[in-house]
């Protein structure tokens, strides 16, 4: 895909779309629309702005409290085919409405005894796309010049070596157990499946992978993903095989694992926080089967980028503070301190964090997330993004082929000692926007490359997304070999003492 001048960079949320968060008694969960209409102040806000509700989703309290939280996703009216100017106008309306609604919440103008408006936020984008939230893949994919059948022996050898180092006793056990791995990501397009089924690409590797792979589309999850130009936000190539590539890395490491690919990102690696939440909600919480959840995506935009995009967002500019530094040994990690941005993102983050907490209550579940690819040559290494930085989520940073932190990689986690690191692919030394043709991480890739050339069935790529996939695969392999989740995580973490921020686990 060629760059297009009309693509608007640094769009951070679905144009014109706002999420309202209500707290109420559980018995009212099926009557939100009626309760909204009864609240005259609240309905006047909706009616004057011309909102229409997309959907209403209710969530039980995490701790069995006598309260339920409902998310109302609403949309301002927009032309059928809005141009860039109209989209910018929609987002400016969102900013104004956010200010008005936040003031109303603080002044308790929208409260009543049955339905309490407790938060409001745009439906922020999330995902794996470059420039969107400044955290996409570390480099573009390039042809690996391999056949799919050549991937498994190469990856199997590397994983077997790592598993042997971590605990050879588990690798030698004959008793195995079923393990499920959920990958929240993009799904391949129809053309990719045609490539997979073409005679020249038929291989034992692809047949084995597809036998273990199940896909749930965004429609299955009940969400509509961004799908048009303005929502690419500067990402100039399709990455529909991003999720398939990660599923392949997991399959390489743990061929026994059942892999469920959930479509929470579109073909450009763009989703929203509500699509991420829908993916998390689709994962069983009471399963007795060991479950690994891979989130090779990021959420939350940097406040400095928002100020650049929306210079009239006065509250955001006024709330901007100098980052403060935290020391970890001889390392320094800078953390953003922005009260207004945090207040806006808090409602959706709270629901996502609550869902993560519920999933983590099951001792059979582990959540793995990519730390982000905000790093730049010669600059201080950035902090881990969410969800990697959430408590009880294993944040993963990337190493290059020399075992050093990859130039594009964020720190693994927050606090730093909670993270792990592994090989995520090296970038080309001359053209840092591309993966290295020899030292990028290799995996299955069926779509056309960014330059339009057809795929041979494999690619080399680079990013913390793929390092997270390796860690998810190693965890799944250990669990499938008879190791429980606690012991498997402990073995991964014990590969290196906690005397540096990143724990090295394996490299290719």
In short:
By secondary structure, this protein is of the alpha/beta class. It is built from 14 helices and 18 strands.
Verbal overview:
By secondary structure, the chain is α/β, with parallel strands linked by helices. The chain has 2 domains: 115 residues, Alpha-Beta Plaits, CATH 3.30.70; 285 residues, Peptidase S8/S53 domain (Rossmann fold), CATH 3.40.50.200. The chain contains 14 helices and 18 strands. The strands form 4 sheets. Strands 7-8-6-10-14-15-16 form a 7-stranded parallel sheet, with helices on both faces. Strands 1, 2, 3, 4, 9 and 11 form a 6-stranded antiparallel sheet that branches. Strands 5-18-17 form a 3-stranded antiparallel sheet. A hairpin with a 2-residue loop joins β12 and β13. The longest helix has 25 residues. The N terminus and C terminus are likely disordered.
The CATH class designation of the largest domain is Alpha Beta
Q: Which descriptor suits the 3D outline?
A: globular
Q: How many beta strands in the DSSP annotation?
A: 18
CATH topology of the largest domain: Rossmann fold
Question: Secondary structure elements and their pairing?
Answer:
Layout: E1 13-24, H1 32-38, H2 40-49, E2 52-60, E3 68-75, H3 84-106, E4 116-127, E5 139-143, H4 148-172, E6 180-185, H5 190-197, H6 204-212, E7 213-216, H7 218-221, H8 242-253, E8 258-263, E9 270-272, H9 273-281, E10 291-295, E11 298-299, H10 303-309, H11 314-319, E12 324-328, E13 331-335, H12 339-360, E14 365-370, E15 393-399, E16 420-423, E17 441-445, E18 457-462, H13 464-480, H14 485-493
Parallel strand pairs: 6-8, 6-10, 7-8, 10-14, 14-15, 15-16
Antiparallel strand pairs: 1-3, 1-4, 2-3, 4-9, 4-11, 5-18, 12-13, 17-18
Helix pairs in contact: 8-13, 9-12, 13-14
